[in-house]
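Consider the subject:
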Amino acid sequence: MPTSLRNSRAAALPAKLSRSWLLASAASEDNFIPALTSEADSVVFDMEDAVPGPEKPAARERVVEALSTGMTAWVRVNAIETEYWADDLAALSKAPGLRGVMLAQTEKPEQVTYTAMRLTAGTPVLALIESAVGIENATAIASAPGTFRLAFGVGDFRRDTGASDDPMALAYARSKLVVASRVGQLPGPIDGPTVGALGDELLEACRVTASMGMTGKLCLLTEATDTINKGLSPSDSEISWAAELLRDHAAGAVVGDGSYLPRLARAQKISSLADSYGLWNA
């Protein structure tokens, strides 16, 4: 695939900072280029939920071909308990365009480690946690060798637990992933998709995501990516506040109270994110 077709901003952004994670069904190669030319920070070719069982071998071949002919993406592989997991990893280990894998239905730390061991050394593994067992084991999963970042499979978690989509009903699970990520020294976790939401509805969902301490969000629609990027980025007012505080600090501002150093650290983080996301002139 010609380099010009890849979203160059997203291609240069470290995955630890990715806000929008777009799942592109591997059921058809027609889904790949629209995803890779979207505003998604990270693209995930989906060989799991998006592909029925009998079609999985063909989808795997489709993904490996794409990642061997110029495309670069993450790939959601099938759960370790399925008959497809080992073949998925054997095939992907030879694909030069593989950015990392998302392991479906992660419930135990060793599942991440076993996955990482079957891939080229250093390939990041994103643990998708989708059940009550996974949530309760999140701290161990976050600390497992090979774990790059945690993600929340909201739909399957709700089916497993009977929880509604009300933010309060999902607050414990989200908080568990945030705390586990911090304990494991990982980037902030990735929230699940808000299916079908666009515009203001999606911005509100991103507000909930950010308020919980999560820093990314899965999505299924290319049209959702830009909204997620905006919703999970520092706001204009935050950027202005950070710039002013950093200017004053550089000019010799004196530490006035115990809150100054935490505010300075926050300003520096906002400034760094604004640089990474190209927001200063947005």
